[in-house]
Amino acid sequence: MGVKRVIRKAAKLVLSSSPEKHVTVTVAQVAAGSLLSGRRVVVTGGGRGLGLAMAERFASEGASVCISGRSEEVLKGSCAKIGSAASYVVADVREVERAGWFLDECAQRLGGEADSLVANAGVSLHEGRFSNVTPEGFDAQFDTNVRGAYFLVQEFLRRRLRMAEPSGNVLVVTSETGEQAYDTPYGMTKAAMDSFVRAASRRVYRATDGALRVNAVAPGVTLSDMTAEYADASDGNLYRDCASGRLFLPEEVAEVALFLLSDASKCVSGEVIHTNAGNHIKAFWDGADDE
Ligand SMILES: NC(=O)c1ccc[n+]([C@@H]2O[C@H](COP(=O)([O-])OP(=O)(O)OC[C@H]3O[C@@H](n4cnc5c(N)ncnc54)[C@H](OP(=O)(O)O)[C@@H]3O)[C@@H](O)[C@H]2O)c1
Predict the structure, then answer these.
(1) N or C: which end of the chain has fewer CB within 10 A?
(2) What is the CATH number of domain 36-222+249-275?
(3) Is the CB of 168 under 6 A from ligand 1?
């Protein structure tokens, strides 16, 4: 250690009157095929779309997954598709007073408390014109996308923090619209959750020595029931006239979600990772040909 460093350390010690803290980390080497081995993951809205793609991918990497939604028929069919690692709970995320009940039910099916929660359930009303937005539509989107997700994450983190050695992951599915102006009030709901992800991470990451992480994945326009009205790639053509030049697939989002739940992303928390190839990034030449 250089002389300057020793002096700096000694000065710091005297000034703070407490010894320097030590933080160590083990870099995780993860093996494909078992990235989530032994993990228990809850995916809200896991019966279809992005949620189903994520649940399938997590199961393929060794996790037990419990998916939720409001239609038992859909959930049953999706569990059959995912295989024996999957179970389901019929639950409406808007019933925030039942968040504890919901996580208990998931724990029963998973054979223990979930270590990871993917708050994916969401709705978009695509009102188009700003003047079309109604108080009812506004409330419907905030009730599901913000209120429902917020209180479920709160209950999940509360439970994890009660453990002797808290650990785990929260992943909130937000949207590129949180950073854009084209879809309101839907985009507002997603911007609110981006903010919550940062706030929640700051409250739990350090308190758990980095064992409990909170992140968001923010997709661009991705093929699902939600976008079926205006995003069609039935001929395999993913072209879209936007900054990134294309639509995205649920499976692409699932890969990023997998990374964020895995130990390979130990140094990532409080982040909003866009899965839109930079579509939210604006440049002065937008509208002109790219160079
Ligand atoms: N597709 C995109 O382009 C895109 C882009 C950015 C972000 N996202 C976000 O990604 C997430 C998934 O969207 P998606 O495209 O997969 O949409 P989707 O195909 O319409 O699926 C939405 C899922 O959420 C569930 N859900 C809705 N309201 C619920 C409620 N009150 N309680 C419980 N579950 C509920 C639905 O299940 P039930 O209806 O059976 O209850 C369904 O499983 C959403 O948060 C969405 O905002 C999507």
Answers:
(1) C
(2) 3.40.50.720
(3) no
